[in-house]
Amino acid sequence: MTTSTVLPPVALSTERLWATGIGALAVFVAFAGDGIRNLVTMWGFGAIAILVAIGCVVMMLRLKPKLDRSRLPKVLIAFLGYAVLSVAWSAYPSASLLTLTGTLLTTIVGVYLALALTWTEVVHALGVALKWVLGLSILFELWVALVVRAPVLPLFVDFGGKEPPLLAMWSRNVLLEGGRIQGILGNSNLLAVVALLGILVFGLQLAAGTVRRSWGIVWLALAAIIFVLTRSSTMILAAVAAAIVLAAVLLIRRSTTPRARSGVYVGLAAIGLAGILFVTVFSNVFLALFGKSSDLTGRLGIWDKVIGLAQERPWFGWGYSSPWIPWVEPFDGFIVRRGVEQLHAHNAWLDVWLQLGVIGVVLFAAVIVSLTWRSWFAAVDRPRFDLRDDRPYTVLSMLPILIAVVLIVQSVAESRILIESGWVLVVALALKTKQYPVMDATKRPDLSPEAAVETDR
Q: pTM of the predicted model, to two decimals?
């Protein structure tokens, strides 16, 4: 008599639970960095980030995930290598080394997500981290509004008796007034990114049936409420862009002929061109629609200064520094807005040009284009890892391209894609879509043969 004995699924083992838990913690720290710094200072956050990175390394050494060296994201490696090389001509080598340390830590987390976790576990870890940020944010704002009843500054911050600038506030106590809340991050734009990603992750999890429906609806509703309360113009545009891309993916999935697919691509290009034309010709209407001033809330002035400085070293840049270190030249007092010193260019592309020159921009663009390209085809092509080409589409395979769209839109108004949560997602997507392009729960290419054993009696 022959019987088969199959071990429990890897995702249910204690080791896999630990792996996913560490991934969720690492993602939470990456997203909640500003809040953690407001609570325990920059040095406390640095210590936590180092411990989390060490945890990721230890778990990877334990899991020994497979790495296909022929499928490494070469442009990502080139960009990182060029950033390290820039120390040689940096105008502030110590600052470059300091920020490169931060980039190394976030790169470790991105690599961990890509290699140590399956696609399903990555989505789960991302969902857990977003829930914690959103949940703590609404509780924090409620505590400020109902208990403190006054604006709250970050801990360990002293303005020497002077009136603190509004931008420095951790919470402005505006929840009950209908103002733009900032949550634990102390920044409404950053909280809006988390809320939008939460809408995407929770929505797709509900559609895929991978979460309990009642709780999935609760978290989706909370993410939507927080998104509305942040009223971030950039993230509203990102949401519109994500919706258009989502619609395009669904249309292509339903297209049965190459001609039908081509029609979707033409329509998508037409929408993009129409959007650019509208913004260019009717810029005043566009700004009024989103409640923005003609200088884009001060961004045009910031960009003008950054461009002027970048033009002094256009090809190789001043040296890597993401974020800017405010106590070194030329960043010491470089841009101060409403009493707060700015630590980035509010545009990732200008930031890369300033730091790494034209060559850096080309490499960075290659990173973004390549990961977006792979994410797109992971969403529109049927899962295929053998001769079969009729497997059903998976819902969660749309998440990488939607995240990529959000990051790209955000990169126009913020430089977050270069640090912390932004860079973690870039590294994770760039490596994961290269190593494991198939996102299919019915087949797990990264599962070791020992996970399922068949014995004969």
A: 0.91
DSSP string of 292-330, one letter each residue:
--TTTTTHHHHHHHHHHHHTTSTTT-S---SS--TTSTT
- Per-residue pLDDT of 367-384, as tens digits, reads 999 999 999 999 988 877
Q: List the beta strands (DSSP E) in 363-422.
A: none
Among the listed residues 140, 138, 137, 156, the one whose alpha carbon sits nearest the alpha carbon of residue 148? 140
- Give all strands (DSSP E) within 44-176, no chain letters: none
Tokens read off for 114: 């890509």
Three-state DSSP class for residue 408: helix
- pLDDT tens digits, one per residue of 418-451: 999 999 999 999 999 999 887 654 333 343 433 3
Radius of gyration from C-alpha coordinates of the chain: 23
Distance (Å, rounded) from C-alpha 346 to C-alpha 313? Answer: 19
More confident residue, 234 or 425: 425
Counting the structural domains of the chain, the total is 1
Asked if pLDDT for residue 122 goes beyond 90, the answer is yes
Q: Is the pLDDT of residue 453 over 70?
A: no
Residue 98 and residue 85: Cα distance in Å, rounded?
14
Q: What is the pLDDT of residue 457?
A: 30
Rounded CA-CA distance 432/71 in Å is: 10
CA distance 137 to 187: 11
Residue 453 lies in a domain: no
CB contact at 8 A, 92 and 326: no
pLDDT at residue number 444: 39
Q: Are 138 and 184 in contact (CB under 8 A)?
A: no
For residues 431 and 335, what is the distance between their CA atoms, to the nearest angstrom?
A: 35
Of 316, 404, 300, 408, the closest CA to residue 360 belongs to 316
Residue 238 to residues 215, 234, 281, 410, Cα–Cα distance (Å): 25, 6, 20, 7
The mean of the pLDDT values for the chain is 88
In a domain, 204, yes or no: yes
Residue range of the domain that includes 247: 13-446
Q: Cα(197)–Cα(42) distance, rounded to whole angstroms?
A: 26
Q: Is residue 393 part of a domain?
A: yes
Selection from 302, 428, 297 nearest residue 31 by Cα: 428
Residue 264 within a domain: yes
Main-chain phi, psi angles of 243, to 5 degrees: -65, -40
DSSP code at position 397: G
> At which residue do the structure tokens 């990169």 appear?
411
Written as six digits, the tokens of 76 are 């990502």
